[in-house]
Amino acid sequence: MLPAELEPEIAQFFFRRNPPHIEITNLCNIACPYCGNPELVSRKGRMQLADLRTVITNLGSSRYTPKVTLCGHGEPFCNPAIYDMIDLITDAKLEVDIQTNGKWPMVPSRLDSLFSAAWIQFTIDGASNAVSQLSRPDTDVDRIYQLIADLVRQRDRRGADTVLSVRMNVFTFNKHEIHPLIRRCVEIGVDHVGLAHGHGTGPPPVMTTVSPRIIDDYPEGYVSMQQGLMDSPPQGAPAAAPENGVASADDPASSFFQRAGCPTLTIRWDGQVTPCCHDNNVSVPLGCLLETPISEILSRENLARATARILEGHEARIESGEVVLCDSCTYLADYLELEKAPKMQWPI
Ligand SMILES: C[S@@+](CC[C@H](N)C(=O)[O-])C[C@H]1O[C@@H](n2cnc3c(N)ncnc32)[C@H](O)[C@@H]1O
Ligand code: SF4
Ligand code: SF4
Prior knowledge:
The termini are far apart. Mean pLDDT is 88; it is low at 231-249 and 344-348. Helices cover 31% and strands 11% of the residues. The protein has a 10-stranded mixed β-sheet with strand order 7-6-5-4-3-2-1-8-9-10, covered by helices on one side. It is of the alpha/beta class. One iron/sulfur cluster is lined by residues 28, 30-32, 35, 37, 73-75, 101.
């Protein structure tokens, strides 16, 4: 029997704006003070290779999405099966991107697998160890630059086309190292630098913004501005319209997630699906991809059930102080503002 189809606009919303994230582990080898990983409440562990096979099958393989990103609330290279996992994903005709902290050694025997990834982005928060270690403690940034330099050479020797990128989270305390960091990246042959800044990049006391003019100092496309992981519209501003243009606040059939524009469907290491990458402790469980196909997890009925759990009791929870994740999220705040706005009448 053919698996049930996902409704096209649901598939469009959850898979076409951002590729889904697969968290192959929530274990980590750095304890960054601005990341929730060290205080994670939910169980820690690694996805098994056989479980990833089930996840990819139940996700519909390449039917709904051309790509997945290995990223979650941990370091993907803390899962030693990562190379076999890249092979499994590319064998399923899916592209794979990886977001990593770069604190791992090169494994020469697995470079063919590594270079079948489309894109690998290394988070580096400084040009010098003194600054980088303010947000990435006990981590030698020179070793990470050296690893990337070695990978650039090996990639070019093989004629592979994996894009090797660096992401710098720009804070008040490392902003002065933006140019030195980009210069180091140019020197070692990094293909692209992303600067994550502003709202959503770390806690407010160290948050800062970067002038977009910085981009003009470098060859076109070399530097870009990236969203912080926790990026969301400022309180009170309307939520960004979903890019597919299908779901809107006036469309009562769309789920809360579509109407609020919640970002990046995420599959946790144990197969649990959450509607956004912020939900590290799975407070909005949509179902488990190890047991349930995506058509049931993202069915209109299941999304409506999850929506009801989020919206019902929201105000009471705020009053009692017993908030769950979404209660304190700006996507929900913006959604409620939208709901309060007068609805457009039809015909006008
Ligand atoms: C959660 S990490 C996972 C991948 C890998 N461990 C790494 O550090 O790149 C993905 C990205 O989110 C960023 N990040 C972590 N905690 C954050 C927070 N509280 N606010 C904004 N970005 C955060 C990290 O710096 C990294 O660039
Ligand atoms: S940002 Fe990445 S490296 Fe740092 S603690 Fe979080 S998951 Fe680990
Ligand atoms: S409202 Fe909930 S599901 Fe949506 S982005 Fe915020 S935390 Fe994620």
